[in-house]
Specification:
The chain is of the alpha/beta class and 145 residues long. The protein has a single domain, classed as Collagenase (Catalytic Domain) (3-Layer(aba) Sandwich). A four-stranded mixed sheet has the order 1-2-4-3, with helices on both faces. Helix 1 crosses helix 5 and helix 3 crosses helix 4. It starts with a strand and ends with a helix. The relative contact order is 0.17.
């Protein structure tokens, strides 16, 4: 598995801890979900560029927090997770959590989509939230939050 986090937003510069969190979440998820991850990329973007992707690929003309694109080959899961930095900040403020905590939740959320989870219904959203919480607890236990 190869996993990378980078930024196209001047307001966010990924740290070694951010990279470690991505790798920890992906490794734990691969084990728990019995999936094989190949290449994973997390890109933190400004809202306008992120929303342009949402319009271009999903025909949704509004900002969202995370977009996930699956580019898998065979049974190896590879993909790109795009995080809207401004929405991430707004979510953190709304939920009363740190911005990095919300970023890590969005990373887990995107990887869960790649692992096969959906969040179209209330039931699916609940299941997804439980799984996000599982991985956030893990990175908390490892001292990253």
């Amino acid at each position: 598995m190869e996993a990378y986090i980078h930024s196209e937003n001047e307001a966010f510069v990924p740290t070694a801890n951010d990279q470690s969190v991505l790798e920890l979440i992906a490794s734990a998820m691969a084990q728990h979900e019995a999936v094989v991850f190949g290449e994973l990329s997390v890109v933190v973007m400004p809202s306008d560029a992120h929303t342009a992707l949402n319009i271009k690929y999903l025909d949704h003309n509004y900002p969202t927090d995370v977009l996930t694109f699956d580019v898998s080959f065979d049974t190896t899961i590879s993909g790109d997770v795009y995080v809207n930095w401004e929405v991430c900040i707004g979510n953190a403020e709304s939920f009363g959590v740190g911005v990095k905590d919300e970023l890590y939740r969005l990373i887990a959320h995107g990887l869960l989509h790649l692992a096969g989870y959906d969040d179209a219904t209330d039931e699916e959203k609940g299941i997804m939230r439980e799984q996000e919480d599982r991985y956030l607890r893990l990175i908390q236990e490892k001292g990253f939050m």
